[in-house]
Amino acid sequence: MKSCGLIVEYNPFHNGHRYHIEAARAASNCDVVVAIMSGNFLQRGEPACMDKWSRAEAALQEGANLVIELPFAHAVQSADYFARGGVQLLAALGVDSLCFGTDLSSDLDYEAFGRAHLEHESAINDLYQAREVTGESYPERMTAIYRQLLPEWTLDFSSPNHILGMAYAKENAKLASPMQIFPIQRQGSNYHESELNPINFSSATAIRQAVKSGTFNDLSSAMPTSSQKLLQEAPFIDWEYFWPLLKYRLLTTTPEQLRSVYQMKEGFEYRLFEKVKQANSFQELMTLAKTKRYTWTRIQRLLTYVLLNVTENEIMQAREHPYIRVLGFDEIGRDFLKQQKGRVSIPLITNVNRKNESLLALDIKAGQVYQTAYSSLKQQDYYRAPHYN
Amino acid sequence: MKSCGLIVEYNPFHNGHRYHIEAARAASNCDVVVAIMSGNFLQRGEPACMDKWSRAEAALQEGANLVIELPFAHAVQSADYFARGGVQLLAALGVDSLCFGTDLSSDLDYEAFGRAHLEHESAINDLYQAREVTGESYPERMTAIYRQLLPEWTLDFSSPNHILGMAYAKENAKLASPMQIFPIQRQGSNYHESELNPINFSSATAIRQAVKSGTFNDLSSAMPTSSQKLLQEAPFIDWEYFWPLLKYRLLTTTPEQLRSVYQMKEGFEYRLFEKVKQANSFQELMTLAKTKRYTWTRIQRLLTYVLLNVTENEIMQAREHPYIRVLGFDEIGRDFLKQQKGRVSIPLITNVNRKNESLLALDIKAGQVYQTAYSSLKQQDYYRAPHYN
């Protein structure tokens, strides 16, 4: 079976995501579309608006054949680690190709770019370190480095989606057998665009804002009916749902103890310890904690690590012991799993139990905290069978 | 001004407490009654049913002239430390006498008992250690030791109130100028009695059960009208209010990290770590965690330390730097404070602010967590003036 992989968040699943699945199928001519999807916490350090099971269900209803969880240790990370986690899982599953959206140009030869980057990787990293003192932004620094080392590549480092695309290409080039890459032109809406787009391709950001502001009916043009229905069945989760727990945590943890949280450094623990006393909501804490050095996303990720009390050791353990956690499949996806089973060299997990719980400890912990959001939310991990569509 | 001290919890304030104040005034012939009262968490490792301000208000309305907070570091402790904290605060305030209830006999000469104990203290402690191996209960062990060392004293070590009375006497004997002791016969009800007593002296336990079971009207015979009114104004807090936070804490703390909690030892951290996964309420966790070695009260105290993430260092800091925190007074109490001010050698605190916050850090933390119980509960410490009756 010919397979094509996507690395996604589906927060929530919308028309652009359906287009992505259809375009991947058309471009790769594949039999099976495999989506590697973040779990209950997302790349930008936020809880998902719906739990991972609902989002997997939406994807399966709209054309994905198999949904695998991108573990917390890779999902709640900067673009490079997020991409590495996704690409490695696709490779472990023996997926043939990778398809992602780009909002710039789909003409860029990502495979060649990945190889060129790999060839110069240590020089790029050295220069990146050396230019630390310049105070340049990430796009400025990378542009300067490429102009110096690889002048034949003119790249734009300012778009989050394009940065992700380049990260996929770089990780893919490192594989023993790199996948074929199918970049597709994103339709209609920019990543950060916050207004609903009348031509059916609104961004997830715009959809989240429409839901929060109560103009929910407008979504019929932006989302498939199936995922609209899921949205109506459960509350729309955001950070404020976890604010009482986060506040409690920060009020009862010393700065010294906070320092054992993954990525907590440079005295930021003292800043949080002080600011939480004045904050009455998550948004207020974010606004109070924000500095020039710390972007919004970086602080959100840090607060996700605080909420879950994530340590460096937990992240390292999870990265050193990868696994494939199946969230759902249809008949085609199940057949593909059966076909690949023999050649998959890492644990393939369809049921979390006492025997494999230590492997998934961080995801289980994330699920247990996410589950407290509202009372009817089901157990996220133990003894939960994959969704069958 | 002649003063008499009481060491109390008022959980909630009832007729027996009013009798205690009246009897103390009559026995000591004092001008001012000073109550040293636990704050928001109590000796047996429970949140108070009402916050410390409401309980102080009730006491002032029913005859106490001055209410001082017994700090967390002394309040949530076994009888000996609880008594030490209370007696030391009374001594620091220059209080002349101490009055407490006993459910055995008020004929016992507690002052002489205190001196006799002090004289033999190291021998008693040595024997106590030596008999560890016998597996005797605390009452059995103490009875055997007294029979051996001080056969002239026939004491009952099985009543919680009597154990507290003896602890007061022992601590009092250690003072440079011991206070006069007025034991009074407790009326009508045993400490643990769980049925409302028709002759107006119900235990706090019986009152709490009546409130929880909804037979609230019966309380008119058990409590002064003023404290009934306070009870009706706010929810009746118990451990279940803090169960979501405690569960979250236990789910997101490793056994290694739990070990840094005060008094956590002997592998009990692993027991909690395991049992919390099965528990759906505080009561369920208690029932699951209970062992022969760990009494209900000991586990409750331990879980209070977990909830507040209390470390040994915090307890030691608080004990080494005592202070007098005023919760409320009437005119007489205020005059007494003015009179004593010059001879009080530890900080006298009527307003918590940035200058003195580090001294009261543990009480402030306890208040911040207690405050999450319901949304209309006021800030417990910062800038809160004593209640004036």
TrEMBL record, chains A, B:
- Name a Pfam family for this protein: HIGH_NTase1
Protein's name according to its UniProt entry: tRNA(Met) cytidine acetate ligase
NCBIfam families in UniProt:
PRK13670.1
Give an example GO biological process.
tRNA modification
Catalysed reaction, written as an equation? cytidine(34) in elongator tRNA(Met) + acetate + ATP = N(4)-acetylcytidine(34) in elongator tRNA(Met) + AMP + diphosphate
**Role according to the record:** Catalyzes the formation of N(4)-acetylcytidine (ac(4)C) at the wobble position of elongator tRNA(Met), using acetate and ATP as substrates. First activates an acetate ion to form acetyladenylate (Ac-AMP) and then transfers the acetyl group to tRNA to form ac(4)C34.
Q: Which ranges form a coiled coil?
A: none
Q: Which HAMAP family match?
A: TmcAL (MF_01539)
What are the transmembrane regions?
Answer: none
Give the UniProt subcellular location, in the record's own words.
Cytoplasm
* UniProt cross-references to Gene3D superfamilies, sorted A to Z: HUPs
Q: Which UniProt keywords apply?
A: ATP-binding, Cytoplasm, Ligase, Nucleotide-binding, RNA-binding, Transferase, tRNA processing, tRNA-binding
Tell me the GO molecular function terms: ATP binding; ligase activity, forming carbon-nitrogen bonds; transferase activity; tRNA binding
Question: Can you tell me which family this protein belongs to?
Answer: Belongs to the TmcAL family.
For this protein, the Enzyme Commission number is 6.3.4.-
InterPro entries given for it? Rossmann-like_a/b/a_fold (IPR014729), tRNA(Met)_cyd_acetate_ligase (IPR008513)
Residues reported in the UniProt entry to bind ATP:
7-20, 101, 161, 186
Single GO cellular component term: cytoplasm
